Amino acid sequence: MSTAAKTPNYNLSQVAGSDIPDWITDYTSDMKKIDEALKENADDIATVRPDEFSEESTYAAGDYCIKDNVMYKAKTAVEAGAFDISDWTATTIFDELSGLNQKKIESVEISSIELLQDGSGYYINIVKKGESERTGYIRLSQ
After folding, report:
1. Domain with CATH 2.10.10.90 in the chain
2. SS3 131
3. Would the pLDDT of 100 be above 60?
4. Dihedrals phi, psi of 17, to nearest 5 degrees
């Protein structure tokens, strides 16, 4: 049986109450999620490592360069030639990476929410649309 409690951001397994984790399913699934998230972040960060502007290079819209110690992002495609400020927007790595922190959160349709009680207290049982069993729960403090 897989663990019912999941972390809010990456939906990783959390052992709670009387859960008996299925180590092969839970662990393997969680490691895959972690690996994919780390790879996605590394790929995103790698795209924001600009080189010095080169008059011999062409740049696609969204490409980055450094000119006079300032980081720029190309507004449109830029042909080889002298640096033209009208083709670029000054930016910072912080500004570019700040959007990466806002990961896509899957929208989930809920078919039922119940307030239940067990020997440990109250909890809210949540079932996703199309699922027949609990897909998540929130334990309420006593």
Report:
1. 47-101
2. coil
3. no
4. 55, -125
